[in-house]
Every structure is written in structure tokens, then in C-alpha cells.
Amino acid sequence: GILFLASVGRRLLPERTPGGGLVDSYPVQEYLTEARVVADSPLIGKTVPEADL
After folding, report:
1. 6 φ, ψ (degrees, to nearest 5)
2. For residue 52, what are the domain limits?
3. Residue 53 lies in a domain
4. pLDDT averaged over every residue in the chain
């Protein structure tokens, strides 16, 4: 079964077309925010809730 999927399985699946994903499908641009964190910031390695932002 594994050999079959590895060799023939790819040919059975439809060709994948590159797309923008959810950003192109839904109007999320107005909800996206970027932030720059400096190298020695105490925020490094923290999530937004952990950083209390």
C-alpha cells in the first residue's frame, strides 16, 4: 500500500495550483497588523497574550 501511494498516488491527485490562501479568499487585510520587535526586546519568544499586548 505504501509503495503504491508513493509511486502512483501523486499521479492520481489533481495538480495543486499555488494560491494566496485565505488572505485572497476573505477580506482579512483590514484586520492584519504588523509589529517590529527589536533583537533585545523582552517580547521575544512570547505570544501576544503572554506579552499582554
Report:
1. -70, -35
2. 21-53
3. yes
4. 81
